[in-house]
Write a structure and sequence with these properties.
Keywords: ATP-binding, Cytoplasm, Hydrolase, Nucleotide-binding, Protein biosynthesis, Repeat, RNA-binding, rRNA-binding, Translation regulation, tRNA-binding. With 446 residues, this protein is of the alpha/beta class. Helix content is 39%, strand content 18%. The strands form five sheets. The chain has a four-stranded mixed sheet, covered by helices on one side. It has a three-stranded antiparallel sheet with strand order 8-7-9, with helices on one face. Helix 8 runs antiparallel to helix 9. The chain starts with 8 loop residues before the first strand and ends with a helix.
């Protein structure tokens, strides 16, 4: 197994005598794990095409062997054919051009950069580049656009659109789905519902399906009411003849008629009232190993603003956040927060949680009552505001999906009750319903 892509990489599966190469990209923030942190970027990427590069080297040896006096031409010709088949299948004669083109399109950092100094987005792009260059028969991509900037996403969309193999992607990115997907598979209440088309066309037909479900639900409620009236008024002497109707009544009330379980709300606790001064940045400068990330940056954030920070991966977006929170110091310049400002920060990595805790323990620290700003709230009620209700609060952190981990992360860090929120890639791993809920919560945040 290859540890580069969250312990998965490219695997070969066999079914009915057919061998299929499957490339897996997981959504975890540990995309490039500890074993690769000291490696150079080029060596990490080139491992994806090691089979082709080895075949090219062996082919050169075969050509040289033809010139030897005792050459076995039949054996050499057979070996040559085998090697050329490998090279042709992977377009190996263009391998160097492919490497440079992919690196340029994904705008990877210089080849001699060590993995440990890369940002989360840069590591993600290295992992994607490595996986795509391996050209497996099938790509399984879990949240492939996480940590990618707009230009990298555009290149990935074009690459996948033209990809000769099969692509299956789990993604919250509605624009990505619209531009790439030819089929949508919705998983709903234990069923898989396929739809041919992109996200927009699926959304239209889903709306029609939900309207039909609502009509069916109203009809079911009418039937329950009628059956309930019948049950209450049915004479005891006719009970033997009423078993079928009793069974029908029980069926109508059974768990077979499940309601939709969508995330319809998220709660961002309000902080203290803000004064006129919120955030002022003056002539900020920051560099790493001689590489200037931020140079003479000045701006101010007014009260009530919602500000989006955009830029390519590695441009210093997360570094700017760390300087605002005081985790890092600028080389020069100042960051000034208003006297009434209380920060609440959510970073792009979700690794500061105890995998053995359950959801409630992680969010509440085991306290029945937690304090948020100037008021107190029942900790289980607070967890419920992030759509962890009932038994969901007993789920173990190490067994959560990426979206569930993100909701725990949000609940845990936002309980500080800040009035200035710093959200670094807050939508990573969120499903579409939770994403909508987060958008609404941010718009309603006081």
């Amino acid at each position: 197994p290859n540890p580069l892509v969250a312990g998965r990489g490219v695997e070969k599966l066999k079914a009915a005598g057919i061998s299929v190469e499957v490339g897996v990209l997981e959504s975890a923030a540990r995309t490039l794990n500890c074993g690769f942190r000291s490696r150079m970027e080029r060596g990490t990427v080139e491992e994806a095409v090691s089979e082709v590069k080895n075949a090219l080297a062996e082919l050169d040896q075969v050509y040289a062997a033809y010139a030897e006096e005792d050459a076995d031409f039949d054996a050499l010709a057979k070996k040559q054919g085998q090697l050329e088949a490998i090279i042709q299948a992977k377009d190996g004669h263009n391998i160097e051009n492919m490497l440079e083109r992919a690196a340029d399109s994904l705008r990877l950092p210089p080849w001699d950069t060590k993995i440990k100094v890369l940002s989360g987005g840069e590591r993600r792009r290295v992992a994607i580049c490595r996986l795509l260059l391996s050209k497996p028969d099938m790509l399984l991509l879990d949240e492939p656009t996480n940590h990618l900037d707009a230009e990298s996403v555009a290149w990935l969309e074009r690459f996948l659109h033209d990809y000769e193999g099969t692509v299956v992607a789990i993604t919250h990115d509605r624009y990505f789905l619209d531009n790439v997907a030819g089929w949508i598979l919705e998983l709903d209440r234990g069923y898989g519902i396929p739809w041919e088309g992109n996200y927009s066309s699926w959304l239209e037909q889903k709306e029609k399906r939900l309207e039909q479900e609502e009509k069916g639900e109203r009809a079911r409620q009418r039937s329950i009411k009628q059956e309930l009236e019948w049950v209450r008024t049915n004479p005891k002497g006719r009970q033997a003849k009423s078993k079928a109707r009793m069974a029908r009544f029980e069926e109508l009330q059974s768990g077979d008629y499940q309601k939709r379980n969508e995330t319809n709300e998220l709660f961002i606790p309000p902080g203290p009232r803000l004064g006129d001064k919120v955030l002022e940045v003056n002539h900020l400068k920051k560099a790493y190993d001689g590489r200037v990330l931020i140079d003479d940056l000045s701006f101010s954030v007014p009260k009530g603003a919602i500000v989006g920070i955009i830029g390519p991966n590695g441009a210093g977006k997360s570094t700017l956040f760390r300087m605002i929170t005081g985790q890092e110091q600028p080389d020069s310049g100042t960051v000034e927060l208003g006297d009434t400002v209380q920060l609440a920060s959510v970073d792009q990595f979700r690794d500061n949680m105890d995998a053995k805790n359950n959801v409630w323990q992680e969010i509440s620290d085991g306290q029945d009552i937690i304090r948020i700003g100037n008021f107190e709230i029942n900790s289980r009620a607070y967890a419920g505001r992030f759509n962890f209700r009932g038994n969901d609060q007993q789920k173990i952190i190490g067994e959560l999906s990426g979206g569930e981990r993100n909701r725990v992360h949000l609940a845990k860090l936002l309980k500080a009750g800040g009035n200035l929120l710093l959200l670094d890639e807050p939508t990573n791993d969120l499903d579409v319903e939770t994403l909508r809920a987060l958008e609404e919560a941010l718009l309603e945040f006081p």
